Amino acid sequence: MASLHSYLLVSGLLFAIGLSGVVLRRNIIVVFMCLELMLSAANLTLVAFSRFNGTNGLPDYNGQMLVFFVITVAAAEVAVGLAIIVALYRARQTIHTDDLTSMKG
Fold first, then answer.
1. How far is CA 88 from CA 40, 49, 66, 103, in A?
2. pLDDT confidence of residue 54
3. Helix axis angle, 28-52 relative to 62-92, nearest 10°?
4. Cα(73)–Cα(6) distance, rounded to whole angstroms?
5. According to the model, what pLDDT value does residue 103 have?
6. Cα separation, 43 vs 58, whole angstroms
7. 20 to 30 A Cα–Cα from 27, which one of 20, 73, 87, 101?
8. pLDDT tens digits, one per residue of 23-33
9. Rg (CA), the chain
10. Which of 40, 25, 36, 35 is nearest to 96 (CA)?
11. What percent of the chain stands above pLDDT 70?
12. Is the per-residue pLDDT at 39 higher than 70?
């Protein structure tokens, strides 16, 4: 059976991969997917802590309930984020972050 340390190690690796993708990539869609990867890493951490830090051998479900709210916010973020990406592509004909340096249209 996996321990809390194993879950936190995987979560940290996922978060590091997502952070490096946000910092290093130029394609805005890849940056957006890396942000989602970082949210998934945070969700894994919440579930791991709620599973292993329970009382009397039972898990604490507060962290798992918070994961549902994070997933809901992530779904709203996807809808708004993809709409912004489509609007940027229509206005500038590019999705590279280097070309999107100014806010004026």
1. 26, 39, 32, 10
2. 74
3. 180
4. 27
5. 60
6. 19
7. 73
8. 998 888 999 99
9. 18
10. 25
11. 95
12. yes
- Would you state the structure tokens that stand for residue 61, as one six-digit string? 């479900």
The three-state DSSP-derived secondary structure of the chain is: CCCHHHHHHHHHHHHHHHHHHHHHCCEHHHHHHHHHHHHHHHHHHHHHHHHHCCECCECCCHHHHHHHHHHHHHHHHHHHHHHHHHHHHHHHCCCEHHHCCCCCC
Return the amino acid letter for 51: R
- pTM for the full model? 0.83
CA dihedral sign, ordered 16, 19, 24, 30: positive
